[in-house]
Amino acid sequence: MLSPPLRPPLQARVDARLRSRIALSAAAEEGVQLRTGDFAAWLAERGRATDFRVERIPFAELDGWSFDERTGNLGHRSGRFFTVEGLHVTEEAGPFGDGPYADWYQPIIKQPEVGILGILVKEFDGVPHFLMQAKMEPGNPNLLQLSPTVQATRSNYTKAHKGADVKYIEYFAGPRRGRVIADVLQSEHGSWFYRKSNRNMIVEATGDVPLLDDFCWLTLGQISALLHRDNVVNMDSRTVLSCLPHPDTAARALLSDIELSSWITGERARHDVRTERVPLASVPRWKRGESTIEHEDGRYFRVVAVSVRAGNREVTGWTQPLFEPVGQGVTAFLSRAFDGVRHVLVAARVEGGFLDTIELGPTVQCTPDNYAHLAPPDRPLFLDTVLRAPADRIRYEAIHSEEGGRFLNAESRYLIVDADESDAPQDPPPGFAWVTPAQLTSLVRHGHYLNVQGRSLLARLNAAEPAGR
């Protein structure tokens, strides 16, 4: 007699304890392995343990990289890694295509492979800790910053460069060795990458995890404190941490979740954005010299080349192109409380490299120097409000660098600024909406809703306030 087929065991759709465990880690200001007060000395010691050197070089000294004779595109002879190409973007906004019109050309990074940004979690003394890495990136202003457990492109972890194995990659690729807490494709910088996504992952280990050199276990509370220090927690860590399922302490908001979803859909529908990859050599108003590709006005960014030496990387020496912005950026959320519930003002942002027409971003996201020559009405909305904010209105401020593997000295002043009705009305201008941090946390469970700058600030919004502040 045939046995009936086994039915798969059912399980709860949501781990009811997970959010409380995350909150427990966020409230823990000290960990079991490394005290927060000792972190700076630990990071400095890791920097002394390895030789790091980054030097600018002319394009002719790039090893394995060259400009295509026909297109002028800059690529690697292996066909792997990435290429620097041209992009033509046209945009019309408005329900009938009758809104403001924009048209521009620029260099763009084309890197079709999906990388892994993964953080490993393990419980010590009943408190979840996060395995972070002191990682050198050639574009970081101070080279060494706190990165995820794994921060690797497909070329890295498949060893296209013939380098060493990526440490801890087995927890994130291949057969599962732990419990997945978060796993979502998220965009990279849409202004400099063409349709680039990374897999943002958080995995809780179920067994013993060896602690290797350059790695440390930290609680969320400790990482929150480090987010107040300039150029310590790198961009990849910030975007992964934003994907954590934090507790929702506010059940009310100005917009219901369905109203917010409808507003986002409406913004995506009303923008007509067309992008076309074009030969780099044909991009108007950008000129190529021996060491840079730059705009004729000296604004925006440059394409440069560097030689890198890093003893603790999978490959210890290489050359590569990098994008270098001209000037320091400003990335800020304006914040208000409505009936006691904290909201931030998000903007529907169009960036040429996005997979969809818009993603939500901070209230202000720009490099002020690019607009210094314009009259106030032509400058980005709310920029002057942020720049003029008195100290007692600034809830959070730190200098953070952007992705150090592709961008050189790309720093932004990240802020959360309290506003009032005169600064930022409850009924905001078109393209802006008031949302709660909990609503943003819900959105980042899905890809391509909140841009990388917004996710960086969300990691701070969801963090516990460090003692003494």
TrEMBL record:
Highest taxon of source: Bacteria
InterPro entries: EvaA-like, EvaA-like_sf
The dTDP-4-dehydro-6-deoxy-alpha-D-glucopyranose 2,3-dehydratase domain, residue ranges: 38-244, 259-461
One of the record's GO molecular function terms: lyase activity
Residues bound to dTDP-4-dehydro-6-deoxy-alpha-D-glucose 2: 191, 286, 349, 365-367, 370-371
UniProt protein name: Putative NDP-hexose 2,3-dehydratase
Binding site for dTDP-4-dehydro-6-deoxy-alpha-D-glucose 1: 65, 153-157, 236, 403-406
Species annotation: Actinacidiphila reveromycinica
Pfam families: Hexose_dehydrat (PF03559)
